[in-house]
Structures are given as structure tokens and as C-alpha cells.
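Example record

The entry below shows one chain as it appears in the dataset: sequence first, then C-alpha cells.
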Amino acid sequence: MKRSVTVSLCMIVKNEEATLERCLDSVSGLVDEIIIVDTGSTDRTREIALRYTDKVADFTWVNDFAKARNYAFSLATQEYLLWMDADDILLPADAEKFSTLKSALEWNTDAVSMNYNLAFDEHGNVTSSLTRNRLVKRENGFRWIGIVHEYLEVSGKVHRSDISITHGRVHGNSDRNLNIYESRHASGEIFSSRDLFYFANELREHKQWGKAISFYEMFLQQVDSWIEDRINTCGSLSDCYRELGNEQQAKAKALQSFSYDLPRAENCCRLGSLYMLENDFSKAIFWYKMASELTKPLDNYAILQHACWSWLPHLQLCVCYDRIGQYERASAHNEMAAEHIPFDSKVLANRAYFTGLGVARQTYTLGGTTR
């Protein structure tokens, strides 16, 4: 009988009393060792951690997430290392999958990637997700890289699992990451491509639109930048220009993303939305139809906005066709949206609206000419 691999859970924490217990409850029975590295908690975090493990260590915070995570990895003793944040959990179905994975994992596996579900709608559907390397073989000595928004650099045989880690964020956005970047930039540090990208993201999230644009453009000039980050950057630039009221530049940046790879639904929806602002519904229809016909990429480590790959284009097509008086097509796209979000209030309100207009409830095939 094949022996299960052993796993160390490695975490870095600070002031996580609101979430740590929930996280550890979800995974403690599945791992063989728990390593908690505290970077300076002043609440009950350490007390909670000690209920689950005696391997709680202190680490003096030096504004470098990779250093803290690498220290946590250095304390582990088991065959594989699993990392989670305090506001992550393994839901019961995923816990079962994890247990099965431990029993079946081939010893020549160097890393295991898992889904990371970041956000959900009111019905529990995943709206935003990405893929992260979550479980790595300890003897390979894989290291974390990056002061902020750090990543785990792996190589070799990577097993793509269908296990999902669920992010249950409690803390709101803070200035911590932005302050780290700004301090290092003020000191004259030369940023890597990755740091330029994430610094720009922090600026955008803090609504510093003009400054974000400058750093996004610097990032796009880097020859070693990841193509998915380039595509994401074009979308973020589009959003920044839209916030500044420059719709033409917003369109141009969304279109620029197509120079790096095939069109992505997120940027098609951006273009559709921009044309809707101008009441140019024929062009908006073109871009939303394109978004609705694209196939969601698989094994993609970039963030996916699932609404753009499912119901959102149809709901917007419903609005566009209604505006130009094509009510049957509008109703049809509302029903296509309903296939993904059947109990959504907007879908139900639209259905009632079309019933009031006397439009028969009907659907059309996605490839049909009646769209």
C-alpha cells in the first residue's frame, strides 16, 4: 500500500486573532506539522496558534515578505511544505481532496498547484480566482522571492490539482504594501519588473491614477515581464484612464492587450462598457459578443474575472439589445445569463420586464444567427 506523504503547514502571521482559528480548524487534521511564524502580533494570535502547535516562532519584521516565508520554510521538517495565509481556509470538499492527494501523490512530484478563490458573489459563485503553487517538496529548497506580493519559485514536475484554497478576507485594504514600495522607491532602489507591476497595482488601488499610469507604462517597457502581467496591465491602464475621464485612451489600452495574446474576455468587456458610455450600442454589442464566445483559459496562473467569461457579457448584451429595440434578442441573452446566475435579482427583474412587454421567454444557441 502506498504511503501518504507528510506535510508541514508553514504560515506567517501578524494580528490574526479574527481568522487564524478558522484557518487552522480547516486544515490541522490534514497536516503532520504546523509552523507559525509571528512577525510582531500584539493581539491573541500567538495564544491561538499555541492551541494547535508548539512550533510558534518569532521573526523580526524587516518589510520583506519573502524573508519571513523563507524563514517559516526553514523550520519545517516534513516531506512537503504547504503554505496558507491566516484568512485562507480549506472548505470540507477541498479538505477531502487534499487528504486523497496526500495518499496518492507520486514521490517524484516537485510541486502541486491549487486554485485560489479570491472573491464570491452573493450566491456563493466564484467571481475571481487564480492558480498558485501551494505544496512543494522540502528537499528541493524552493525559495520565496519578492518583498511584497512574493511568489514561490518552483521547477520540475508540477501536479495540477483541482483543490481550491478559499480566501476569506476580513481585513480591509491597508497602506502597508504601498508604504513599503514608496519607502524603497524613495531610497533609490531599482525595482524589478514584478515590483513595478505590483507598485502600480497598489497605486491604482489607492486611486492614485496618474502615478499608477506612470509605473504601469514603465513596467510595459521591461523586456522580462510576464505576458499575463502585461495583459493585466493594459486592463488596469484602461481603468485608470477611464477614472480620469479619458475614454479614448481607455479604449486604446484595452486594445493594446490584444498585441500580447488572443483577446481576453475581461478586456473585451472593458471595451463594451466604454462604448456603452457613449451610447454606441452596435460597437458595444460587438465586444460583448466576442467576450461571450471566448473559451476560458485553463491552467492559467493569471487572475480570472469569472463574470466576464460567463454571465456578464450576456447581461450587458441584454441591455444593449433592449436599447436598440431588439427585445427578443435582449430577452434571449438575459436567459443565457440566467444559466450562470439563475436567481440574480437583475436577471429576475429583466425577465419580469420582458414579460410585461409581451416578449415570449426563449433562448438561442450561442452559435446561432439569431443572436
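Notes for this example: The longest helix spans residues 227-243. The chain has 14 helices and eleven strands.
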